[in-house]
User: Fold these one by one.
Assistant:
Number 1:
Amino acid sequence: MSAQHEEDDFAPTSTPGYKPGAAKSVDEYANLDAEDESLARWKASLGIVPGVTGTGNGPKVTILSLELASSTLPPGKHLIMNLLNPAEIAGLKKNPITIKEGIEFNVRINFKVNHSIISGVRYMQVVKRAGVKVDKMEQMLGSYGPHPKGEAYTKNFDPEESPSGMLARSGTYNVRSRVVDDDGEVYADWEWTFKIGKEW
């Protein structure tokens, strides 16, 4: 498969007529319409408050972890990918995660906004089996500024159901995940594998 075809898999969907506005600093956004109390509360909920600028160096966003969450997981078991650990990321490609068949689960991503306002940032993943694309997911993270206390944000995606049956249980699924913004800036790009089993 060509590299261009693989990049086409990650072409984000676009909304006709939508054009991102000019970039502004956190303080500029915080001071816009400062007399509107309702708008000020909404901006504060996004971390847009005067004087909170974060660190101006490096990427605007750091992706900390990706988690597969399900109420069917055995007590004490967690499926968390630490994306700050290069050795763990390398292991994710070689050692498939086992997902129980026919259960409901959701993807949860933890990230930190280092500086600036982010909007149009989305999580995308393409799932392939034997080289054939079987699923594509694209989820918007939303709009955020640096957290006033420097903390990470968590975004829970809509629940999904894992495949089931003998055919689903045979073989390994290869996943490529990416976090990208409207300008095409890639904040994280990694590969991992999973298989479907009768049990976790």
Note: The two ends are 32 Å apart (CA to CA).
Number 2:
Amino acid sequence: MSGTTNENSVKICSKANNQDFFVIAAPKMAEKWKNDKTVPLIDVVQSFDVFTTDSGGVSGEYIRPSRGILQSAFGTYDNEEVVRKIVTEGTEQRL
């Protein structure tokens, strides 16, 4: 992805275990990926980093949840699988 994070990026947010999780992605690419799985997931997301916030919502300081939190929320702590679930089930929001 080119450009700065804030100008050319969005959050894809998904709720699990009453906590919001999100990934940083290119605008409109999640919808494209949902309709065409030949689009590489790495073209959708900025990285395979999963974030939550200190408040548990989508605003606040971004933090990376522990493997235990990911396992409890998504049934796996494999970042690629968690990112795939967030992109599949989540909604796009502006940063």
Note: The chain is about 25% helix and 25% strand.
Number 3:
Amino acid sequence: MISADLPNSELLYGVAPVMAALKKGSREVYELYYRSNNIGDVFHGKVDEIFSMAKQQGVPIKHVSKETLVRAVDGNIHQGIVLKVSKIKDHTLLRFGQFKDGQYAIHTSEDMFVYESRRRYPLWVCLDRIQDQYNLGSIMRSALFFGADGIVIDYKEGCRPTPHVCKASAGAREYIPCFNSRNIVDLLSQAKQDGWKVISTSTRDAENGESATPGCLASLDSPAIVVLGNEGFGVREQIVSNSSVSVHIPVRADTPEMFDSLNVGVAAAIALSAIKFTGE
């Protein structure tokens, strides 16, 4: 039997998440489980690399049955490999610090972290009540790909990073810092006062403030936070009305009303791909 029986442990599954966890090295790794003849030829090279890394790190490797793996991950697609690891510690984000000389601070309920921006200016993604784990995983992957420094998640009304999210992110969850926020509205308001550009996404023109298509994001000259909203209701009006800019992705043809917006994971990729900072 395989289970997350250790305190603060969980089971990652799938080739990409397991490989990412072993490569990143930010978790404690307890055991690797696999089933032979259950991994397609396309993954064999990667699985060999996983075994090699696990052996180098002294991780016990156990061969188990198909049924054991299926039960361990509640029937999710595991690609024949599961890794028992420690959970990544949650941090509650209280405030974004001002950006100066290529650095800025992130203030949490327990500590302060100093960041160096991955791009010309800091870029973060803030999620307002995102509830679908596939969407969260997709957004994590896009955020990492387009150079975001981290993600803020509304744990109160949104889903949390789980092994399922890690699988949906293809392992990007291991590399993109994720923080919880107790009050996203206050967090963004304070960030705006401290010189951050708050960019909310919307399915329509905002009633207050500037509204534009993603093309307006091609010449930003300050730290930026992209806010993505709930799958059914979008970004809260309180956030949209207090944003520096509201961006909507225009429909290009006559479309039934029920399809007036894109999946939030797709919208995230489009918005993040449009961002370009001056000097890049």
Note: DSSP finds eight helices and 14 strands in the chain.
Number 4:
Amino acid sequence: MSALRFLSSAARRAPSAISISRRGYAVAADKIKLSLVLPHQAIFTSTEVVQVNIPAATGDMGILADHVPSIEPLRPGVVEVIEATGETPKKWFASGGFTTVHPDNKLTINVVEAAPLTDFSPEAIRANLAEAEKVLAGNGSEEDKMEAEIEVEVYQALQHAVANK
């Protein structure tokens, strides 16, 4: 008897011996525990939220409960926190950092600097961006130019974020 017929014959005779599992949809939890921390302050500490949107280096990401575990570097941009469905999101501008999605519905965001988006003045952003661009285009040292390049990147992201509140 061929091996295939033998297996199918055995399967018909003892269906309980062979277990066939079926994949299904994951059961989603409602909330994720967010910790958003700066070196000198904790904005959120294990606070349950519905969704967090981050400016990951690979592109913008929305994080919900049961998200796949990952570590993502952050580029300058807006961290948006939705605490409850239908509620107005809270937005902070972060200069950069790292996000860690843990397997147990925990999300940790470590940033160097962050402030509520409403704290920024479009006029001040424009002035500081112009100054940084002037330094970048000038005859300063390489160190000054590298700092100015970082400032330009951050101010451009901040200008975009404030314009799209």
Note: The first helix runs from residue 3 to 13.
